[in-house]
Amino acid sequence: MQRFAVVMAGGGGTRFWPLSRSSSPKQFLNLSGNDILINETIDRISKVIPKKNIFIVTNINQKEMIEKVLDEEIDRKNIIYEPIGRNTAACILYAALKIKKIHENGIMCVFPSDHYIKDNDGFAEVINTCIEIAEKHDKLITIGINPTFPSTGYGYIKFDRDSSDKYEKKAYEVLEFVEKPSFDRAKAYIKSGNYLWNSGMFVWKIDTIIQNFNRFLPRIYNRFYSIYEYLWTDQEFEKIGEIYPSLQDISIDYGIMERADEVVVVPGDFGWNDVGSWDSLGAIFPPDDDGNIVKALHVGIDTRDCIIYGNNRLIATINVSDVIIAETEDAVLVCSKNRAQDVKKIVEILKERKLDKFI
């Protein structure tokens, strides 16, 4: 079967404010020093799926930016623009129907655009395994990451260890998806050996995921099929704009994966991190002798276990620890590391106060 990739690139990356903005969200940032995250994602995928079969789903507000910076080998006709954000379920069905109309069926792999992975060869091996299982079994496949510490920032997948014989010992049947746990519960999950981190990456046959939309999210399914004939025509975006405001704002996890009974997980161990907030930069940059992660012009005295990210100005610190300092041309963030997840609340306040130039 033909292989296709769908890269979800419509997020705002608000937990990386002030570096990530609505006009240039996290997936367009060069955090590693090599390339922007979305292009690193495309390069990684292309080891398994040809670039001509890679589709990007993003928001129409990011059209100018994505066409400017996206890998030149990605066909601009493969960029799918949503008029407004409606979470991951809507964008996945939109992409699946676009591919189906031209190619009928195939294997569809879904990836976030803004994750960091160290071992690209190991990643390719896992994706190939998922595709192999999807071709042989009519299943919804997700990738679970072998946990390395009791994270409270990730969702977890509980799996049936005794089910691996059905899948050549390469996959397990999923028993339960678990939301972000408390620290004690996360420790118990890891100790049990029956849980993986939820990576948000999926593999399935196109027809299989469409059938599951019809079963579990029929309102979204019916709305899309009402304009199916207009896909790949000059009227597509107009018709999409008519149905999108009425679509359920729901994730693929809540809408389908947690409700379906034909879900399997393939474990992965390839240096994955979703780089979801400032405190996850340690996955990309090693700390110095004082535990600081510094990407700035910085002078410090008694400064330990901090994250310091700057633009052009000198950042000087004295007697501080466990703090995030992020500086751009027009804004400065100072935040306790244990509150890194709350940075997105700053963006919400800026919206309420109509300080749009900082969003």
UniProtKB/TrEMBL annotation:
Residues 298-350 form the MannoseP isomerase/GMP-like beta-helix domain. The keyword Nucleotidyltransferase applies. Keywords: GTP-binding, Nucleotide-binding, Nucleotidyltransferase, Transferase. InterPro entries: GMPP_N (IPR049577), ManC/GMP-like_b-helix (IPR054566), Mannose-6P_isomerase_type2 (IPR051161), NTP_transferase_dom (IPR005835), Nucleotide-diphossugar_trans (IPR029044). It catalyses: alpha-D-mannose 1-phosphate + GTP + H(+) = GDP-alpha-D-mannose + diphosphate. Its EC number is 2.7.7.13. Residues 5-283 form the Nucleotidyl transferase domain. It comes from the Bacteria. Belongs to the mannose-6-phosphate isomerase type 2 family. This is mannose-1-phosphate guanylyltransferase.
